[in-house]
């Protein structure tokens, strides 16, 4: 059998932290930024963590599980 491939989309979007949590970028920061407040854009800049309920799905996409 061939090796299982990771999903390319997941590979580009998620990174693993040292403790095993999954980092992600915030959405809504690519265009139409004029109507968004400075505070809102600043909060979208920082990385977030994937919710616990989604972690299993993403780990299977990344072939970690």
TrEMBL record:
InterPro entries, sorted: Ribosomal_bL35 (IPR001706), Ribosomal_bL35-like (IPR021137), Ribosomal_bL35_CS (IPR018265), Ribosomal_bL35_sf (IPR037229)
Keyword Phosphoprotein found: no
Signal peptide boundaries: none
Gene3D superfamilies recorded: 4.10.410.60
GO CC annotation: ribosome
Membrane-spanning segments: none
Family annotation (Pfam families): Ribosomal_L35p
Keywords: Ribonucleoprotein, Ribosomal protein
Keyword NADP: no
Family under the similarity heading: Belongs to the bacterial ribosomal protein bL35 family.
NCBIfam families in the cross-refs: rpmI_bact
Name used for this protein in its record: Large ribosomal subunit protein bL35
Species in which this protein is naturally found: Winogradskyella haliclonae
Lineage: Bacteria, Pseudomonadati, Bacteroidota, Flavobacteriia, Flavobacteriales
